[in-house]
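Example record for the data management plan.
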Amino acid sequence: MPGQQPLPLEGRQLELKLYPGLSTAALNAGRDKKEVALWYELRAINVNGSSRLVLNEAVAALVKHFDYTESTAYRLLRAGRGKLWEIKGSSLSSGFRGRSVIKIYSLLQVAEYFNTYPGRPSEVKVSDFKGPRAKKTAWLYASFFKPGGSRATKPISRASIEVATGVGRRQQRRYDKLAAIKRVYNGAFQQDSQGKLVPVRHLVFGKSRQWLKDRRLGNSYNSRALKAPRGMTKRVDAELRHRSLNQDKMSCVPIKRFFLTPQSYIKSPERHEEPFLLVKMRERLIPGRMEWCLV
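Corresponding structural encoding:
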C-alpha cells in the first residue's frame, strides 16, 4: 500500500496549501478549527499524494515538523475521524496503535462537509505555520485575504470581516499581528467642478463642537502567504455547482460597490448606490495608499 512507505520528508521544503472557503467556514462555525489545521498538515506530509499515511509515521512527522505532542496528535485524529479523514486498521479499538492507516478525505469531500466552495488556495511555509494553536488559527483567518502581490484588493470593513469569518474585531487585530497581515489605507475622493481629485469630507459631531474630516473607507488586507496553483479547485467548484451546493446563494447576484477598472463598472449588472472606482496610481494624491473616486 502506498501509504505504508516511509515518509520521504528529509531535505524537502514542506508547504501547506490553505483554502479560504474551508478556513472561514471552520472559523465561522466556531468548531473544527484544530481539525482543519491538522487536515492541511496531513496533506503537506503526504508528499506522494496518495491520501494515505501510516498512523505512527504521521504522528511522528506531526511531532517533528509541527510541534505537536503525541497525545495532542492522537486526540485531534480521534476528533476529526469521520469528518476530514478516516482511520482504518486492525488496532483501531486499542487507541489507534499498530499499523493503522489514515485515509485523508479529498478536497471535494471536505468542501461538502462544510457546505462551501474551497476558493483560490494560497501556500504557507511550515516554519510560518507551526507553533501554538493561536498562531495556526491566525493563519486560517489570514487565508481569507488575498496573498501579497495580488491585484489591488478592495476595501473591507472590520464588521464585514466579522460577518464573513465569525472573528470579532479585537481578535482580528490579534490575528493581524500573529500572521503579519498587511493593511493599506483607503481614502474616498471625488472630482470637483474643475475635474480635480479632492477628498470626500463629512461632518463629525463632538461634545462641544463640529468639524469636517476626510472620509476613510475600510482597509485593504493582504496575507504573507504566496499564490498557489489552482490544482483541483476548478474541478471541485464545477462539481459542487453541478450538485447545486448553496443554491440560494448562487441564485442572487452580488451588488458591487468597488470597481478596479471602468470596464468592470460598465459591465456590472448590479451596482451599489454609492459606487467607487479605483484611482490610477499616477493620479493619486499621496503615493503608497489606495484612493477611490466616487462615481
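Summary line stored alongside the record: The two ends are 61 Å apart (CA to CA).
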